[in-house]
């Protein structure tokens, strides 16, 4: 017996007969019924088993049932009921089979059987009756039509004999339960009538049949077709599933893929989602388009590997000509169902033989194309194809596809708008951040900025600002919130920090002025609607390479990490100032002496905090990643991000600034104490020239001599002793500084024709790259920078 034969019960006798009438297989049930072992009958002609061997064995072209008398091995006879079925030979498989069951005269007296007459013939529903041995006693016409066999062909069969499908095995189990308990039972099943192309959903009522004494004699099975209700429930379930599964992220590609995943296999065997290329400038696409149309495939899902209707991979641009379902649905602005092949598709397929062959190979017979439309704009098209599902798309299927697609279109449009806004914000953010870091002799720096993976671009920033005297400022900050507003606020604060740093304010004073600015921004943002929400944190540090000391102050920001040249990373203990925007609270500074090649790490809290872990765990991972940061700083930045950030990206934007400090050798600094005597300016100029000669900077001698003369003379005339002159140089810059204890700052003014003074600082400004004044606790320092390349 072949494995796929429906008669798989060992009690039923089965035999397989070749086209010439020879027995090729003999089941265990046949041996029990007739006593013949397989080796005794296989190979013999089946007609030899008949009691009257001269009679022919009924093997019609299709199906036959009736009663026969067969010869038993012991010489007796057995009356049986036979169901014979003819199969077209396929390869080397068998041609026909017989199903034989013992026939007892009392079992099939159907017209006079009250059990059958009461249960079957009086029921308008599809009904069948099984006896205590689970043999089918009778069916009405409705059930016979459902099972696809004449009523007289079904008598005596078991549930598994009817079709052998799993639902019939379940039916037999439930029948036994009803016979055992005597209680009715309801079950749902799917059965397909022989004349139908699709299965129906049936609600079966299994009721016990009893005689006058109350003994259970059989089971009546009454089936009610509730296919429409079942399909309506399936459609509602798919809509609910689409609501929860589509649009989980603000990513266009993933949202489109979620649409395809939801609809396979519930609605189609293959789904592709293709979007129109966005117009330049971000203009929305009109509601209808004329073919041919170019679409970018962004997602697809298939029930099997050979199901897709074409070979276009995800990401490829696909051009659909006129008469294709996709182009026609976009042109019409509504859904289109097209059969394959059809007159409408012939011209389309004829233009692409590869695609036509793939459609034929995959067995696609129907394509449903639904335009993706949201807020009056057309985004693209979703194509649904069926191959293994034999049913074509119905009107209800089209409505369901349109409902799911409409939900997905809104989510895709939201994702596209979010992506556009995020890209705009990111562009603004990057334009406000430094594009490159200045090269200074005091330090080497490397930075990283990462926008948040979920909440979008925020207001994190970093900066490296050259100051006078070879000093350099490092700053990192974080504006509260995300989006364009946060990025714009970040840009204003960064500009303010650079402006305040240019006048050489101490770190704590700079943060005080920055706090006032945030308060003003909050008032502007609030207007008449109540308190504003502008806030920020900031860390500001100034490193002096001559003294190798670093002064730092913070406003609600995480403290920096220092990595000594041959040590482990640790946090610098700084006074914890309040966040910017609170107002009225003081900021404090701390000063540290740091060795050459020490690395300072500044970062925002998005690096160490997340929803998956607390800040303490992130800080520990950061210290571990920074320990031993002796290699290139860019590699250290990458290692920190890979080690500290949680998988899937940061929940907040991240700014990271690493700076390797380099002190200036004492040989590049020269200092003189100047007596408050104008007559001694000439010897000072001579000492300066000698020092420049020792440094091999004679090309800058003339300019440096004039600048030193003017600055020293100005300090002697208007300042207060003690007066000190300092020269500092590196490979590109020479700096002249004159310090005194007076807090009065000079002002550049244009001298009139007959004025005797006022030309010194103007001359210094013309001869140097830049100049300025910085105030200290002891007084002030006037400085000027000369670019050595300009002296050559």
Automatic annotation (TrEMBL):
The keyword Hydrolase applies. Pfam families: GAF (PF01590), HATPase_c_2 (PF13581), PAS_4 (PF08448), PAS_9 (PF13426), SpoIIE (PF07228). It comes from the Bacteria. Keywords: Hydrolase. Signal peptide: none annotated. InterPro entries: Bact_Sigma-Reg (IPR052016), GAF (IPR003018), GAF-like_dom_sf (IPR029016), HATPase_C_sf (IPR036890), HATPase_dom (IPR003594), PAS (IPR000014), PAS-assoc_C (IPR000700), PAS-like_dom_sf (IPR035965). Residues 16-44 form the PAS domain. Residues 185-238 form the PAC domain. The keyword Hydrolase applies. NCBIfam families: sensory_box (TIGR00229). This is PAS sensor protein.
């Amino acid at each position: 017996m072949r494995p796929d034969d429906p008669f798989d019960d060992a009690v039923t006798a089965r035999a397989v007969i070749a086209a010439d009438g020879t027995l090729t297989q003999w089941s265990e049930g046949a041996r029990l019924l007739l006593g013949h072992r397989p080796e005794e009958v296989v190979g013999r002609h089946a007609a030899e088993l008949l009691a009257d061997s001269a009679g022919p064995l009924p093997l019609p072209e299709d199906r036959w049932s009736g009663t026969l008398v067969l010869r038993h091995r012991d010489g007796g006879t057995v009356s049986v009921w036979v169901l014979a079925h003819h199969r077209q030979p396929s390869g080397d498989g068998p041609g026909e089979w017989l199903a034989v069951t013992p026939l007892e005269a009392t079992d099939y007296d159907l017209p006079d059987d009250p059990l059958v007459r009461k249960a079957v013939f009086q029921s308008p529903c599809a009904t069948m009756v099984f006896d205590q041995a689970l043999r089918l006693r009778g069916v009405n016409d409705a059930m016979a039509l459902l099972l696809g066999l004449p009523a007289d062909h079904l008598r005596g069969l078991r549930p598994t004999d009817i079709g052998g499908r799993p639902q019939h095995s379940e039916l037999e189990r439930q029948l036994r339960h009803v016979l055992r308990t005597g209680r009715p039972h309801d079950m749902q099943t799917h059965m397909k009538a022989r004349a139908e192309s699709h299965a129906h959903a049936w609600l079966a009522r299994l009721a016990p049949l009893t005689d006058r004494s109350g003994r259970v004699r059989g089971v009546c099975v009454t089936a009610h077709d509730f296919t429409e209700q079942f399909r309506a429930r399936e459609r509602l379930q798919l809509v609910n599933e689409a609501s929860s599964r589509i649009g989980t992220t603000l990513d266009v590609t993933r949202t489109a893929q979620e649409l395809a995943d939801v609809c396979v296999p519930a609605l189609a065997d293959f789904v592709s989602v293709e979007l129109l290329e966005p117009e330049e400038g971000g203009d929305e696409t009109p509601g209808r388009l004329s073919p041919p149309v170019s679409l970018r495939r962004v997602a697809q899902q298939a029930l099997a590997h050979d199901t897709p209707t074409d070979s276009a991979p995800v990401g490829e641009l696909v051009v659909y000509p006129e008469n294709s379902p996709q182009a026609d649905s976009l042109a019409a602005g509504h859904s289109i169902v097209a059969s394959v092949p059809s007159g409408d598709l012939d011209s389309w397929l004829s233009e692409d033989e590869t695609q036509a062959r793939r459609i034929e190979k995959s067995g696609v017979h129907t394509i449903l194309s639904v335009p993706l439309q949201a807020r009056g704009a057309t985004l693209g098209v979703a194509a649904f194809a069926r191959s293994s599902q034999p049913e074509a798309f119905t009107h209800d299927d089209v409505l369901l596809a349109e409902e799911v697609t409409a939900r997905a279109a809104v989510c895709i449009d939201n994702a596209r708008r979010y992506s556009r806004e995020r890209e705009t914000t990111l562009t603004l953010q990057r334009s406000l951040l430094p594009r490159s870091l200045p090269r200074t002799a005091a330090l080497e720096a490397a930075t990283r900025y990462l926008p948040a993976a979920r909440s979008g671009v925020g207001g994190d920033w970093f900066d490296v600002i050259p100051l006078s005297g070879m000093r350099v400022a490092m700053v990192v900050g974080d504006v509260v919130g995300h989006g364009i507003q946060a990025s714009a606020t970040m840009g204003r604060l960064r500009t303010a920090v650079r402006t305040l740093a240019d006048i050489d304010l101490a770190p704590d004073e700079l943060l005080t002025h920055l706090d006032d600015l945030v308060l003003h921004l909050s008032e502007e943002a609030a207007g008449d609607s109540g308190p504003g929400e502008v806030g920020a944190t900031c860390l500001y540090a100034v490193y002096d390479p001559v003294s190798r000391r670093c002064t730092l102050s913070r406003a609600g920001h995480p403290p920096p990490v220092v990595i000594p040249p041959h040590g482990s990373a640790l946090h610098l203990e700084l006074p914890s100032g309040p966040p910017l925007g609170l107002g009225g609270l003081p900021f404090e500074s701390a000063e540290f002496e740091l060795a050459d090649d020490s690395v300072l790490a500044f970062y925002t809290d998005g690096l160490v905090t997340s929803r998956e872990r607390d800040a303490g765990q992130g800080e520990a991972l950061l210290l571990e990643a920074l320990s031993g940061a002796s290699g290139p700083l860019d590699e250290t930045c990458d290692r920190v991000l890979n080690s500290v950030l949680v998988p899937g990206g940061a929940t907040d934007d991240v700014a990271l600034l690493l700076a390797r400090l380099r002190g200036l050798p004492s040989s590049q600094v020269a200092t003189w104490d100047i007596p408050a005597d104008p007559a001694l300016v000439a010897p000072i100029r001579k000492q300066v020239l000698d020092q420049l000669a020792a440094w091999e900077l004679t090309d800058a001698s003339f300019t440096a001599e004039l600048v030193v003369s003017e600055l020293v003379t100005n300090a002697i005339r208007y300042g207060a002793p003690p007066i000190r002159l300092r020269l500092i140089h590196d490979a590109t810059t020479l700096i002249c500084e004159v310090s005194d204890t007076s807090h009065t700052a000079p002002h550049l003014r244009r001298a009139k024709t007959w004025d005797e003074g006022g030309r010194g600082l103007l001359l210094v400004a013309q001869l140097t790259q830049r100049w300025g004044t910085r105030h200290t606790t002891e007084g002030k320092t006037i400085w000027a920078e000369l670019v050595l390349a300009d002296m050559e």
